[in-house]
Amino acid sequence: MTTTASIDRAGRWLLESGVQEPSGGFARYYVADKGDNRPVSTEITGYAISSLTYLYSLTDDARYLDAAQRAASFLTQIAWNSELEVFPFECAEPLAYFFDSAIIVRGLLSLWRITGDRALLQIAVAAGRSMASSFAAPNAEFHPILRLPEKLPMPRSDQWSRSTGCYQLKSALAWNDLHRETGEPEFLRWYEALLAESLRTHESFLPGAEGDRVMDRLHAYCYFLEGILPRVERAEVAAALKSGIERVEHFCREIGPGFVRSDVCAQLFRLRLLGASAGVAPLDRKVAAAEANNLASFQPEHADRRISGGFYFAKRGDQFQPHVTPVSTGFALQALAMWRLYQAGELPFSTDALI
Questions:
Q1: Which domains does the chain carry?
Q2: DSSP state letter for 81
Q3: Pairing relation of β-strands 259-261 and 141-142?
Q4: How many CA atoms within 13 Å lie on the side-chain side of 155?
Q5: Contact call for residues 216 and 205 (beta carbons, < 8 A)
Q6: Cα torsion at 78, 17, 321, 95 (round to 10°)?
């Protein structure tokens, strides 16, 4: 199957599988062995908007833009709590996540750049400011989770998504993007402060788990590497990106035969391609071709439209896990599209559209 065909099938899955609910929101994932969607997630809907606008940029297919607009309407008209200025985690859950807020902001901005709808920018700006104020913690940290409506921090744990760490730099990309769109200096100041702290602490992040949980931490560590990309011209950042890619590759090779996540494979592939495009990390085309083929293997052909064309979340040994996810699908289709552009000599270095 060609890369183009794989991207097209992934796009059809996002549009036609039913993972986008009638409300416009996207389910966290489809449980293939049970035949139902997990609840709608605000974070996943934000990711989906970024994926759909990216597909629209590749194809000019208005169906992607329409689906992105319906998803954005869900976020801005149903999910957004204008009084608290937060997006709740899954609308029935009285929680808000720092990380999720940023994914939503970046999704709304990706659509704003296409449509110029001021309401999208206004809510993105409000959410970005709320990230800095509502989630602020001592020692220049940011609480990962707040309980609503009190906006009180939830207890932390050693699970990466319930603690602070360098992975939160992916969240700070929202501030970097907001600075570019608005020129407001505080957004740039917040990004730069978290960049400096993340570069100082990132080397202690991966040893924080064992077994399968290392693969989960690789996913989060790739978020850190994605977060440093806008400053890759700095020597310290370039060195961290190059060594970080090598660390992720090492752990994937070591752990992957037993348990591997498709999102990690896609994140590593995107980082390789952008690192090569920036002139930081030379790309071995044979290795890249093998990684592209491995990534494509997570995309099933199936009689069930709710499965076919999406990407499975993970593989344990030779067995794919029965979860088909919008995030894995978005990361994978973008990685494969970037590979196609790189092979044609047409991949620019840019983080604007990074899902």
A1: 3-208+292-343 (1.50.10.10)
A2: B
A3: unpaired
A4: 2
A5: no
A6: 0
Buried-state track 79-101, b at ≥16 Cβ within 10 A, e below 16 = bbeeebbbbbbbbeeeebbbbbb
Cα–Cα distance, 123 to 106 (Å, whole number):
11
Beta partners for 328? Answer: none
What are the tokens at 7? 């991207």
**Three-state SS sequence of 190-244:** HHHHHHHHHHHHHHHCHHHCCCHHHHHHHHHHHHHHHHHHHHCCCHHHHHHHHHH
Q: In a structure prediction context, what are the per-residue pLDDT tens digits for the chain, which is 355 residues long?
A: 688 899 999 999 999 999 999 999 999 999 988 889 999 999 999 999 999 999 999 999 999 999 999 999 999 999 999 999 999 987 667 999 999 999 999 999 999 999 999 999 999 999 999 999 999 999 889 999 999 999 999 999 888 888 999 999 999 999 999 999 999 999 999 999 999 999 999 998 886 666 778 899 999 999 999 999 999 999 999 999 999 999 999 999 999 899 999 999 999 999 999 999 999 988 999 999 999 999 999 999 999 999 999 999 999 999 999 999 999 999 999 999 999 999 999 998 989 899 9
Q: Is the separation of the CB atoms in 26 and 80 below 8 Å?
A: no
Instruction: Look up residue 148 and give its DSSP letter.
Output: T
The C-alpha atoms of residue 233 and residue 170 are separated, in whole angstroms, by 18
Which residues are registered as beta bridge partners of 37? Answer: 30
Identify whether the C-beta of residue 262 lies closer than 8 Å to the C-beta of residue 295: yes
What one-letter code names the amino acid at 307? I
